[in-house]
Structures are given as C-alpha cells and as structure tokens.
User: Fold ShKT domain-containing protein from Caenorhabditis elegans.
Amino acid sequence: MIALVSLFFVSLFAPEASAVIGGDLNCTTYNGTAFVWTPSAVACSNTISDASCAILYPTTDTLGFPAAGNAAGRPLACYTTATATPAAVVQDMKTAAAANCPKTCGLCCQTDAYYCPNVAYPRLNCASITLSQCNSPAWRTIIAADCPSACGFCNQAGCVDAVTNCGTDLSICQNIGMQTFVNTYCQRTCGRCPSTTAAGSVTVTSGTCTSYIADSSSNCAAWSTNGFCTNTFYTVAQRRSRCATTCRIC
Assistant:
C-alpha cells in the first residue's frame, strides 16, 4: 500500500512528459486541436552535430524532438532557464540555440535564411510547402520568388538554382553545349539571374519617365527583394498599382 501511495506522488509531481508545446510558440501553427510544428521549424540543419545538440538540449517529451506536424514540446534549454512550462523566454538562451541547434530546437523559421516576409499574393500556400517541393525543379524558383521563408531562400534575393546540384561541376557554366540548361536550371550558381545585382536589389523600368507614382504598400522593399518587380505572375498593372516607385514602373 505504501508503495502504491509513493508511486502516486512520484507520478503527480514528476516533470510533465506529455506532448504539448508550451512557452515559446514561434515556428508553430494551430491545427484546430493543438499547436504543432510548421515544416519550416525544422527545415534547416544544425550548425553542430545532431548528437551534440541532443546532449545540449535534451528532451523528456514522449514524442521526442520537434518535427513537422507533431506537438513535441520544445526542449526547455532552447529558450529558457526554467525547469517547467509555462516559462519566460530568455533571449540569450534562444539566440544560442538558434545559432547552434536550430533544427533540434524547432527554431529554423527564425534563422536569417527563413525569417523574411513572403509576397502578399503567392501562387501557392506558403504554409503548406514541403521539403520535397523545396528541392523540386518544378517549384524551387516559384518558391524563391513567392515564399522564400518556407525553404530558407531569404538570402537568395529571389534567385535560386532550379536543381540542387549545379555546384557539383562548375565547368557547366562555361560549357557551350550546356548554356540552355544552365540558363534555365543553374541561374544562381552560374550568375544568370535576370535583373538582379549582387546586393539582391531589383530594378525594372517600364517606359521612360522622370517620376513615379508612390508605392501603395509599405511592403514593397521586401517584395522587391523577393522578386515581385520581375515576377511575370503579376501583371505590370498590378506591380505598378502597388510598387511603382520601388519597381521603377512609369
């Protein structure tokens, strides 16, 4: 009887191990029942080894570490000095975790490569983009222009290779017989990105004029970086109505 009572109190006061995300809800989404991790929460790689991250940021959650679609609690050491949730976010702890073990901690979406605005009217649902789409020649260039935060394209200025292995053999960039291929599939690696500069800014001039109507959106600078000014998915009229000054459209 004493053993049963002891077991009851141990279970009552033991650290919670149920699969519930608490504390810092960044990189999560509500699925109608619970908060779960978005694909971009774990889309990056850890800077140090996964094994080292598991030691630095241990978890007692029954589901293990954060993964796309699950509700595993973020390891506490990833964002706080507390030992139970709810817990206040300690920014220094979170910064260190994002720098070293962003995948283990479910913080990929807050790293530089994943933390940027998507365009206002994307051609696909940015929140539902999968890793296979991020690596697909059919989707990569569209995602880079419309949903850069979904695949870690925030630092690419809207220009990515359509295939992922262009850098394997850089001689293809100068191979006469490969020019059609590299112009289509290896634009970033081979320096074939249209209308972009090294800084990632985009300038589009439509007609000749000395002044432009004011931008109607405060997001034009970010949209331009993500390819809005050159994306033919939007008509010239649409680009002009929203970002005439930024896109230099008369």
